[in-house]
Amino acid sequence: MEVNFFGSVRVTKAALPELRRNHGRIIALSGITGKLSPPAMGDYSASKAAVNSFFSTLRRELYEAKVSVSIIQAGCVKSPIWDKVRSNFPVLRERNKTENETYVAYRYFLDPWSESDVGGLCGVLAQYPNMSTSPAIVHAMTSRYPQTHYCTSTLPSPTLRLVY
Fold this sequence. Notes:
2 domains
């Protein structure tokens, strides 16, 4: 949260006076996990959702100042973060079994998932190659009418329709 969200907010707020003076552009990098939260990634997904919410609000606030705000939501890619999910999931499952109230609330979610299932889910999410964010960034920087959101995920379109 500190880097993904608060870092983005602090840098943006520091640049706002200059952006307002020059009718600049803000391009926020986020991720599809801000809309589609995989198991055991709640904290990371929450930070991406916070980025989406903050910059969506900022876009409305800066409309009169003629400052455009675009959010680029990258898809899932093979990275070490999936290893973290795999390693955290068994711990989460066992911890929730000892905290009876929490376990009861989440048992239908946690019990069917084995460590290999989580590995499989992570593999499925990461198997779709992430389109480069570069074309989206270039378009947001140079277009006369930049989009408000760019999604660079190649998840199948029925999945994306559920998310958006």
